[in-house]
Each structure stands twice: as C-alpha cells, then as structure tokens.
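Hey, I'm writing a tutorial for new members on how sequence and structure tokens pair up, and I'd like a real worked example in the thread rather than a made-up one. If someone can provide the structure for the chain below, I'll link this post from the tutorial.
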Amino acid sequence: ALQPSVVATAIRHACESRGFFYVTNHGVPREAVDAMFHAAREFFSLPVHLKQTVLQDHNNRGWTPMGEETLDPSSSKRGDSKEGYYIGREAEEDEIGLPLRGANNWPDEEKLGLVNWRRVMEAYHDEMSSLARRLMPVFAEALGLEKNFFDEHFRRPTALLRPLHYAASESSPDEGVFAAGAHSDYGVLTILAVDAEAPGLEIQEANGSWTPVAGGTSGGFCVNIGDLCERWTNGRFRSTVHRVVTKQCQGERWSAAFFWEPEFDVVVTPIVREGEKPHYEPCKYGDYILGKYAATHEGFKDS
C-alpha cells in the first residue's frame, strides 16, 4: 500500500489540476457494487405507473423521471435523457421536518415485485459513506490541515446516493440534446461507479473543448470535486464542468453517483493560506444547496 503522504500528494495534484481522479484499493466489496446495480436495473425496468408511486418528495428522496432534470438549461432544448433515484441518510428524530432531512421514500417491494431492494441500497449507501469518511482526512492532509479538520462538519452529513439510468439514445450537443448537460457538481465530493466501464463522461478543458474520461481500473471509483469544495478551499481545488454524451450504439448506460456534503447548518468559510485573500464569502450549506436544486430540478422550482 502507498504511504498516506504519497496518496495525499497525488490527490492534491489531481484536485488542483483536473478535479477528477480514480480511487482503487478502496475496501468496498465488489459484491456490494454488483448488487446495487442489479437492484437499480430491477427498479428502472418497472412500468412508469409503478415508479410513480415513489416520485421525488420535498426532501429530495425518491424517483426522478426521464427528462425531469435539466443540468444545463442554457444549452439544452429538453430534459436530460436519464432517470434517477435519490436515497439519503435516514434522518434522526430531531431532524424530521427540517429541509431536505427526513425518511427515505422507499418502494413497496411486495407491490412492485422487488426483493431486498432497500437492504441492498442501504448497504451500498453505508459503503459509500465509509469510503467518503476515509477520504476526508486525506483531503485535509492534502490541504496541509489536521487530519480531523472536516470531522465536525460531517457528523450528520447530507449523503445522497443516486443510481442513474441513461436511455439508449444518441446525444446531440449541437442540437441541445444531452444524456446529462454540462454542469459542475454542487457539493464537496462525488464518488461515481459506472457499470461495465460505459463511456460517455466528458470533462471541459480550459479552452472549452471536451475530453472523454477514460474508463478506470476495473472496480475503481471516479471521484470529483464539487463547487462547495472549490469554495471551501478558496479555489485551490477545482470543480470541473462535465457532461454525459451517449451514442445510440452503446445501448443503455448505468451509473451511481454518491454525493458527500456537510451538515445542513454548517457555515462554509474559505480555507485561506498565509498571505492569501478569501475569494468567496462564507455561506450556510443549507441555503446554498436549496438554491442549486431550485435551478435544475422541476420539483424544487417553487420551494
């Protein structure tokens, strides 16, 4: 195994340059990943009227239909050609009723003909939360901070798992048709699993061109920095704009994004190095994330 300082240096370089990297030897069992994708396929293969029984609720839990989300409203002529399912950390009793915190919107497995669906998704969510908690001390070290710097901000995190199903359709950027429009992620970290190393993910270069993200080592996760992390690090770590462009010949595309974000009431203040001025104002995470959702999700536009 590599020394922690070597890993921290490699992550710092990746985050300062591209904002994307692959993580391997992560300790997440392959069986948990395979079971999650199998369960995702089972749900997304159901008829629409059954999936509508668990539509995304006001706490951002549940099914988001094909085309519901438009990640790049300025360039897209229609909604992104994907559907998803948000699964969060189960809220504790004193959090119930607070924004974006509540019970998950689980499907009725008996009525929908699903087997152990909740158990499988909860197990994968737990694995991703553990991986994120293992990564945060490395990020702190990469920034020259105490390893436990982020601990107090993630005691009760906003941790969202979102399995995604992309339609077997051709994207056409020139015509404003995307599998997932150009965007940067909102939070701190995104941990992405892609079934069968399917192509489609692209990152935007400084000159505006697009570079395909090569498939990683089998069993690895693609990790990228979100806007809140860029803000928190005072612009040191980059939140890179990316998109998903699919070709009809590749068939359906399956992935699962895990979004790791702090507690709702945390005030994010830029980490400023000696002699450096802050480039961002402090912000309360909860206000920040609600504004982001309202801009891209139909279900949050009126909230």
